Amino acid sequence: MSCLTQSATVNLIHHYRDIGVWTKMAIRFSERVAFVDDRTDKFLTTLARLGGYCTVEQAQAMGFASSPSQVQTLLNGLERAGFLRRVAEYPLVYQVTKSVVRLIGTDLWARRQRAIETVRWRLAVVGFYLEARQWPADFFFQHEEKIAALAKVGCSRQWLPHRGGLPYVADELVMDAHDGGLSIAIVDRPHWTAFLQLLHFVTRFARCRASAGERLTLIVAVGSEARQRMYERAARHRRVIEHCKGAPEPASLYKVSTPTPNIRTLTHEPVIHTNLDSRRP
Question: Cα-flanking dihedrals φ and ψ of residue 157, to 5°?
Answer without folding.
Answer: -55, -35
